[in-house]
């Protein structure tokens, strides 16, 4: 599958069989089908295997620090609301190191899409537990097994009334692509947590495991009911996939609320310095 | 009764002291404004505790026939507003200090107090809260000034309030004035300092304002910060002007978010500022390193207060030079500016944005609580600054890190032009893509470090004061400028000259000859370990052995500097 | 009210009328009624008005950095499980600067009590919005009014299956004391978010406002049902007070799971270095 | 066919190169173990990319008749395990390099390859994965060694696996051995280096192990960290021993939590360690400052990798000395140790805990990827360290910050004794309560800073090598010790001596005479800006102008040092 977001002849640093390849394809297709221009997209990521994603998509990117994609993405969107901003990283990056930004970005309702590759493990650093690793799993570091309860990103996002909350599985490219498209089109903060097998370090939560331990929400499911969404988010015998929650009450996004755009819709870089106004203000200090 | 000095014809230091929440700030604001508008040279600064109510805070208002820009330790007139106030400043009292207070509060004090019934008077007008205005009126009377400007000020300040409130305040001012006038008329206290109507046209602002205006002058249109004293003032300033000036203002959830937001904002074409203090800055090290490796500019205002840890949140110190200089892992250039005077700081701050943009590097503005909270009137604000915008419109084949002779690559932003802007905190190639090629690693490190040579070509010259023919060279940096300068003026020794740094890093090669020439170098720093002397040692190879250091949380006073400089300049 | 936790003749740095005074009294009484020894309690706090609390209680204390009380408290408890550890601070400290530690401490289920003074404002720094400030409120910094959705600590804690989740009001000393006692006695992580009026900077959420905008859960309320608890946590027309949630499934605490205590129950400081074992291990490297 | 050197009787460098995931690490582990157990002197280190599969990684195994502890650039025997391997190390190949590989992989290479059918052989035994063991067997055969120790190793390594697996592995080893033996017997390659049975009793461990054991020796019983290469190894090490040794191990949610946990743990009586790398360390600045103000010890292992930003995650550099030295706002003492050799590091690390405890200050252990990943055999491990426990049982009137002559106050912990232990990150009085008293502020600052004088009394002496009668003094610190030492041995110039620092801060006064005496000083650092030379300048007032710097992500090789030292020592 090649489109305008494909970079030819690139050495991709993921392991053969890694779920990230499907996500890469899914995202490129989604961006293409949304007819977005390469120059107007910014992929923002942290550090990790998932965070290498922007390297492989032919758009602008900001590959920043581990855990810090969301503040960067927020600022980019606030500086130039015309850009399509996607913040993408692993679950260790987004919910571990970056956990505080996760909860506060939801509060802000920045109009960006947050894609989290949830492989329930730290891939790049070779197999330590991540915030979503299941209790009991033995890892390179947690040799006696994980004891901390896994972080539930869906439940937390819903509890904070996040604007758009979805879960997907890397193995299902078509459905995942549709979810991502909805997320990007959605106005306000949207999160898509994507289950992704890590073939090198997570032998438990394999492709097969995810297949067997997930199901899709059916068409009758009403994602606008916060309580119902919460119930779904708590299910762990089989994890529900699809759009869990859309908060219809959140009408304005972060950028909408910025007074800087009240009288002037131009992105910041297109505005000149208003020297006269500054000088006038300074003259008032006499 | 001792024969105290009761006539002030050249210079007077008036100190107001009371509890947090008692409204000293209000009195200060009113008095400095009214005095300055009446044509007096006014200097003012304050010291306060880290609490919202209670404790003891004080403000000094110094009025002089010269344009003074620093303060003395000694208090001429103390106005204690609660019964702990006198104790709080007791070591600044002299035989000559006049204490003007409400006797009601000082039933059994050992100090002699000239009583003015502030409280009773206020209550008579209708509310104890008018106490402040009564005091303002009384103080103005000591200057034999009239009430016009005060009344105007009151009318303006309370214009959104009811007419009754305005009326009561004006009445309070008048009552206070009458009480003060009695003292003046009876020659108990007279402040007969000459006023000069031209001073009305002077600028009157504090350090915090200069940094705020400097940011606006520098085209700042984005600020993301987390509140922390004394850095918060600049955030509030920009928020207040956010609508009219089109500034994106966001209170971040923490300092890490703040600095990363600011880098994201620069990346997308904003001119962003972060303001913080030492503890918050310590959390930004990784972000500064990010700015270094991405070559995405960032400007951080680091408002110093005494550390380590939480330290003394509302006090002053110059103890964070080294953390500003070295925080962030790895090796990359940076620039550090240290505001020194009200006159220069608007330009200096505006330049910070130009420098960051030009050199695609972090720039740190290193102020402190003392600088931020200090006002004086001045005729000359250096506003001579242009926006140098270094963003380019990209072409299709744009490479963010194209290697160039100077080390600087053209900086594009996403969505402006046909090119793609790729930046990566991993070591990267010219296109901004991750690489582990050792050759590219060296090229990119050299490219980044080379910028420091370029930066060194246009370092802001230190300010030299005095004769070229000196034995002793006094060195200072940042907020100590005026107090050292005025101390040296008082010492008035032709063999002592003064070199003051507004840019503390990098240090220009031009500095070495100044140091070599001196028989004796004295460095003055508001910290305990003489951090700037170490930086000068690295930069020039010259060790400085004479230090005047202060680290009790308070800035320098003129008298102590006079004493210590004389000591060190003398015993050679 | 004086007891063994009272420090005589102290200058307390809060504003007259501040809700913190009641909380101080409440906590001292609670500790006393639980018959805890002064030497065996550690109060851990961050920085802020609420965080000054430990200064005024005669026990051990660790007054650390803004936002960092929970990691410190976690480590103290893990180092010496015999200590009673209370982590107390303002909501800016705990949910703002310290938000990441908040969510991960819940995951760990450390056996400590987390008391948060929620005055919906930054007190010590003079009146900026906090994570729980209500939308629309104008502050010294948010001069055009707050726009970010308030953080809902109760909903987040419940969504992460926190062990014990309660909300109280400083004005009701007796009830609050009982809640705090329950929280301390509870095994595992417990949070008590206490509404506290800030008379200096929050003129909206006053004593009266809290009185009028809260109600107590009635005796029939079953706090063991996560969904019901979540519903309660979402109520904002009137905020419910009391124990919202107890997670009966979380049986083991963080310290229980540490292998360091599997064969040896002594706190770390009481153990010597086992030089022989180390040397034996090193000899194996031959 | 060129006449290549094919007999190695004193020294051989064998390099294995292949993709991540191909199991080079396994071959390395097996070979170094078996060779060492066979009585050879073995040195080994590796370089690898930041990826889990693919790319190109390499390991060098150097075997010598001397106890070598560093490596040369040049490769004697290359064993490429995939078709990119030769390119990856091409600049380390010489005319003499023998390439031993599976021709199947190198259909059209320009290099001459001595083929061994690793893959075919493995497949014949039943699975391509046995390729590794085939290679091990073949390499051992080149030494004309027997298979006994390898077989033992295999049996032990796979003891939890099925008998079939053990059988197959042993068969693979045998097959490989036969293939290698052919080369040996036909004199195509012979490694006839003398073995010495005594070497079997040598210790054989890498830098990472020494820090792990050092922590155990130092009584470490708590580690809270966030994974970050190359710092993670120490965390894993302690986790592996957590049950038997009673260590609390927690993976923190971020580095800020990690450092704050460690301070909490020390406060409550643990001996805690944090391990990280530059980016994580940059986030710990505020925590380090907290440790400084609370006078609660903390020990941080900072495993350096190239920055800034994410930099080169799996490479090496000495670029974080300055951030270690200055991070954290405000002024307070600290100690920095830089592991230099396998022999000394267990003790050095153990001492870190004693020093932290004694001086109630942060101690930073500054290692790097090269040091951590490097093995060699040695007879002498300095294990001579005692636990100095400085905790006291408190009395009822205990004051945590009681002012003492030395600056050190007795450290109590909560729950041990009748006293209360109060610590506050605000400036505090002797009881640990918040204060804004200026006098107390000065007392407490002096008290904290005074500890530095005390620390200076027992600084670990730098290691001096060579004659006292030198013209040129070479200076190094940390992981460069062995390579500089061996380069100087090779140079063998009596006029060049060597001073190496294992404690890099503070610097002892004893160092200055060494520097003064030299006509010429050369400093060698694995970074771009000679950070240690700046520290020496501040500490001694002496500027060092000759630098040998390397910052491409790779440690120094012996040959390049020989060359450059000769150059700089020559042209005076
Ligand atoms: C501040 C900081 N801490 C730690 C690291 C090391 N690190 C890089 S990626 C990573 C975790 C990766 O896990 P995750 O985010 O789940 O991504 P994955 O590799 O599984 O896709 C860590 C700990 C870092 N780069 N920076
Ligand atoms: C790292 C850091 N950032 C910022 C501050 C400044 N600061 C101190 S307290 C505080 C907020 C206090 O608000 P809250 O936690 O709600 O406590 P309150 O005062 O309202 O009780 C802030 C921002 C600090 N001390 N350290
Ligand atoms: S380590 Fe796991 S997540 Fe990373 S590339 Fe390999 S399979 Fe994918
Ligand atoms: S500012 Fe508010 S929270 Fe702080 S002491 Fe005063 S009333 Fe209490
Ligand atoms: Mg992951
Ligand atoms: Mg608060």
If you had to describe this structure to a student in words, what would you say it looks like?
By secondary structure, chain A is α/β, with parallel strands linked by helices. Chain A has 9 helices and 8 strands. Chain A is globular. Chain B is globular and about 85 Å long. Chain B folds into 4 domains: 7-201, Pyruvate-ferredoxin Oxidoreductase, domain 3, CATH 3.40.920; 205-378, Thiamin diphosphate (ThDP)-binding fold, Pyr/PP domains (Rossmann fold), CATH 3.40.50.970; 391-458, no CATH class; 463-569, Rossmann fold, CATH 3.40.50. With 572 residues, chain B is an alpha/beta fold. Chain B has 20 helices and 25 strands. In chain B, helix 1 packs parallel to helix 4 (131-142). Chains in contact: A-B, A-C, A-D, B-C, B-D, C-D. Chains B and C meet through helix 8 of B and loops of C. Strand 2 (60-63) of chain C pairs parallel with strand 19 of chain D. Bound molecules: thiamine diphosphate (2 copies), iron/sulfur cluster (2 copies) and magnesium ion (MG) (2 copies). The site of one iron/sulfur cluster (SF4) has 11 residues of chain A, from loops.
Could you list the spans of chain A in which at least 5 consecutive residues all have pLDDT below 50? none
Distance between the termini of chain B: 45 Å
Oligomer: heterotetramer
Largest interface: B-D, 65 and 65 residues
Overall form of chain B? globular
Output mean pLDDT of chain B.
95
Distance between the termini of chain A: 67 Å
Q: Which outline of chain A best applies? A: globular
Determine the structural class of chain B based on helices, strands and strand pairing.
alpha/beta
By CATH, the architecture of the largest domain in chain B is named: 3-Layer(aba) Sandwich
């Amino acid at each position: 599958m090649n489109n305008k977001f494909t970079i030819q002849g690139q050495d991709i640093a993921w392991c053969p069989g890694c779920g990230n390849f499907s996500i890469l394809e899914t995202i490129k297709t989604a961006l293409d089908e949304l007819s977005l221009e390469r120059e107007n997209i910014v992929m923002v990521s942290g550090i990790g295997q998932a965070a290498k994603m922007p390297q492989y998509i032919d758009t602008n990117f900001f590959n920043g620090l581990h855990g810090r994609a969301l503040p960067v993405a927020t600022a980019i969107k606030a500086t130039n609301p015309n850009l399509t901003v996607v913040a993408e990283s692993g679950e260790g990056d987004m919910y571990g190191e970056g956990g505080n930004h996760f909860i506060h970005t939801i509060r802000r309702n920045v109009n960006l899409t947050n894609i989290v590759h949830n492989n329930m493990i730290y891939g790049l650093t070779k197999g330590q537990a991540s915030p979503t690793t299941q209790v009991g799993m033995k890892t390179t570091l947690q040799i006696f097994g994980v004891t901390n309860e896994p972080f539930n990103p869906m439940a937390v996002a819903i509890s904070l009334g996040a604007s758009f909350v979805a879960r997907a599985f890397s193995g299902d490219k078509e459905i995942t692509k549709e979810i991502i498209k909805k997320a990007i089109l959605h106005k306000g903060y949207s999160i898509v947590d994507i289950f992704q097998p890590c073939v090198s370090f997570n032998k438990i939560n394999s492709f097969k495991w995810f297949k067997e331990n997930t199901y899709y929400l059916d068409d009758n499911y009403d994602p606008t009911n916060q309580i119902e969404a919460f119930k779904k988010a708590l299910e762990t015998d089989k994890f529900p996939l699809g759009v869990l929650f859309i908060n219809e009450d959140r009408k304005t996004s972060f950028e909408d609320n910025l007074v800087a755009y009240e009288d002037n819709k131009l992105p910041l870089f297109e505005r000149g310095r208003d020297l006269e106004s500054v000088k006038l203000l300074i003259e008032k200090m006499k | 009764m001792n024969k105290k000095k009761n006539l002030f014809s050249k210079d007077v230091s008036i100190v107001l002291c009371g509890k947090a929440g008692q409204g000293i700030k209000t009195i200060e604001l009113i008095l400095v404004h009214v005095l300055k508008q009446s044509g007096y040279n006014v200097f003012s600064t304050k010291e306060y505790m880290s609490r919202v109510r209670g404790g003891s805070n004080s403000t000094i208002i110094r009025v002089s026939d010269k344009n003074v820009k620093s303060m003395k330790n000694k208090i001429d007139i103390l106005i204690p507003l609660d019964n702990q106030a006198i104790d709080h400043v007791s070591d600044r009292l002299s035989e000559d200090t006049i204490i003007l207070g409400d006797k009601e509060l000082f039933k059994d004090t050992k100090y002699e107090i000239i009583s003015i019934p502030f409280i009773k008077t206020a209550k008579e007008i209708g509310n104890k809260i008018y106490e402040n205005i009564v005091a303002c009126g009384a103080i103005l009377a000591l200057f034999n000034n009239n009430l016009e400007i005060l009344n105007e000020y009151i009318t303006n300040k309370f214009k959104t309030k009811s007419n009754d409130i305005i009326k009561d305040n004006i009445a309070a001012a008048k009552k206070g004035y009458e009480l003060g006038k009695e003292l003046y008329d009876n020659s108990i206290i007279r402040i007969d300092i000459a006023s000069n109507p031209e001073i009305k046209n002077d600028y009157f602002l504090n350090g915090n304002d200069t940094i705020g205006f400097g940011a606006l002058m520098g085209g700042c249109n984005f600020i993301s910060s987390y509140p922390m004293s004394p850095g918060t003032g600049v955030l509030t300033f920009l928020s207040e002007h956010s609508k009219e000036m089109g500034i994106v203002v966001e209170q971040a959830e923490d300092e890490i978010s703040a600095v990363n937001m600011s880098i994201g904002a620069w990346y997308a074409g904003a001119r962003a500022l972060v303001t913080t203090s030492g503890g918050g800055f310590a959390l930004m090290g990784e972000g500064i390193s990010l700015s270094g490796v991405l070559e995405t500019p960032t400007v951080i205002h680091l408002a110093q207060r005494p550390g380590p840890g939480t330290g003394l949140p509302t006090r002053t110190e110059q103890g964070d030079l080294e953390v500003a200089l070295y925080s962030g892992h790895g090796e990359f250039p940076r620039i550090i500016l240290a505001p020194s005077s009200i006159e220069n700081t608007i330009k200096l701050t505006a330049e910070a944005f130009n420098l960051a943009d030009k050199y695609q590097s972090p720039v740190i503005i290193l102020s402190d609580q003392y600088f931020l909270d200090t006002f004086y009137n001045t005729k000359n604000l250096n506003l001579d600054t242009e926006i140098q915008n270094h963003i380019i419109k990209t072409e299709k084949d744009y490479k963010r890190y194209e290697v160039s002779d100077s080390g600087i690559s053209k900086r594009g932003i996403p969505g402006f032009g046909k090119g793609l802007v790729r930046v990566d905190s991993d070591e990267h190639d010219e296109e901004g893509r991750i690489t582990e090629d050792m050759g590219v690693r060296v090229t990119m490190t050299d490219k980044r470090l080379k910028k420091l040579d370029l930066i060194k070509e246009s370092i802001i010259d230190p300010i030299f004061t005095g004769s070229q023919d000196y034995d002793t060279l006094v060195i200072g940096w940042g907020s100590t400028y005026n107090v050292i300068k005025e101390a040296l003026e008082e010492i008035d020794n032709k063999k002592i000259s003064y070199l003051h740094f507004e840019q503390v890093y990098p240090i220009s090669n031009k500095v070495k000859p100044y140091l070599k020439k001196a028989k004796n170098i004295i460095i003055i720093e508001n910290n305990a370990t003489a951090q700037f002397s170490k930086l000068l040692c690295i930069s020039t190879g010259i060790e400085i052995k004479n230090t005047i250091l202060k680290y009790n949380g308070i800035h320098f006073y003129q008298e102590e500097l006079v004493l210590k400089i004389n000591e060190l300049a003398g015993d050679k």
